[in-house]
Design a protein that fits this description.
about 350 residues, alpha+beta, 7 helices
């Protein structure tokens, strides 16, 4: 396609700028105005300058009204049902849609800045295979800057794999199971940490909500918060090697401890949804000025209540506890620091 060379100012030789809705061109440097290639200055120039400024201000206002494709908030939401598998998860897609509504309607995430991976997506690059999940995690942190808020949500299966590099206190790596894990393999916590935790610069905050089994330290964050029934807590160091950030903050809210399993339940609404997912959404939606301590306490109460309901009507159901966990790249006071996503 042919391009039209910009006209230059006869005074300073800078490129002229076409004035919206007129035949005038103005130099942004020396403010000379060309009218049919003739220079004019003075009172007419002043009036034309007013017109240009008004038009420019209106244009900037219109740009600000349009949703940003990048924005300062970005999220990856991944839900896997494993259709055809004997351990199919019925609630995973519903979990993702519920989280997406929370991010958009409550937390101000632009839809264009949310990348959704489920088996229902028509775009093949949005199917939650190992390769696509890896690409999505890379996209999540690419180009992040101070002030950015990032979110990674996962609903699916996870597993534990014997640790081979000696960086796990319990001797096991935690791992996500992508849709094609039988062929492509799992995604180890080492890789997740290296992809979305290690690159975080100062001023960037990453929140991960992981609704899966064996997920207490799934991000390999340095500190795990242990809290008793009286609300007393302490930060336990969970790193044998440095697994921190470049100055940013990473927080993981996971469904259960590394030695526990998580569950989907219909006890809350009559429709299957992840116990962690529901308790997280309800707490964020209904409580203001929420601290991390209040969030964790509320979620644990809701999950415990659901377990009691299930055991009452299904005595043969598993009685194993499920206690949501909090881990972080930094220690902080959980009852004073507010949750800002």
């Amino acid at each position: 396609m042919a391009t039209i060379a910009a006209k230059r100012c006869n005074t300073c030789q800078r490129n002229l700028v076409k004035m919206p809705g007129s035949q005038y061109e103005v130099c942004p440097v020396c403010t000379t105005v060309n009218l049919f290639n003739q220079k004019i200055k003075g009172r007419v120039l002043f009036r034309i300058g007013q017109f240009i400024n008004a038009a420019a201000n209106q244009y900037q206002h219109e740009l600000q009204r349009q949703p940003s494709n990048r924005g300062r908030k970005r999220a990856v939401l991944c839900g896997i049902t494993y259709n055809g598998h004997r351990k199919k998860l019925e609630a995973s897609v519903h979990n993702v849609r519920s989280m997406q509504q929370l991010l958009v309607n409550k937390l101000g995430f632009p839809n264009a800045s949310i990348l959704v991976l489920t088996e229902e997506e028509s775009d093949r690059s949005r199917i939650p295979t190992k390769r696509n999940i890896q690409a999505a995690l890379q996209w999540l942190v690419r180009g992040c800057q101070p002030g950015d808020s990032l979110m990674f949500y996962y609903a699916g299966h996870a597993s534990q794999i014997p640790d081979e590099d000696g960086d796990e206190i319990d001797g096991y790596d935690e791992a996500l199971c992508p849709l094609d894990y039988r062929v492509a393999g799992a995604i180890l916590d080492d890789e997740i940490n290296a992809t979305i935790v290690a690159p975080l610069p100062h001023g960037v905050t990453l929140h991960c909500v992981v609704d899966t089994c064996f997920s207490g330290t799934l991000l390999d964050l340095p500190f795990l918060c242990t809290i008793n029934r009286d609300g007393l807590y302490k930060w336990e160091e969970h790193q044998l090697t440095n697994k921190g950030t470049r100055g940013g903050k990473a927080v993981c809210i996971s469904a259960c401890a590394d030695d526990q399993i998580s569950a989907d339940t219909s006890a809350f609404t009559g429709k299957a949804i992840g116990a962690l997912t529901f308790s997280f959404i309800q707490t964020i939606e209904n409580e203001s000025k929420l601290t991390y301590g209040a969030l964790l306490t509320s979620m644990r109460k809701k999950v415990y209540h659901a377990q009691q309901v299930v055991s009452r009507f299904m005595p043969c159901a598993s009685s194993m506890p499920q206690e949501p966990q909090l881990s972080s790249s930094k220690r902080f006071e959980i009852y004073s620091e507010q949750v800002i996503i």
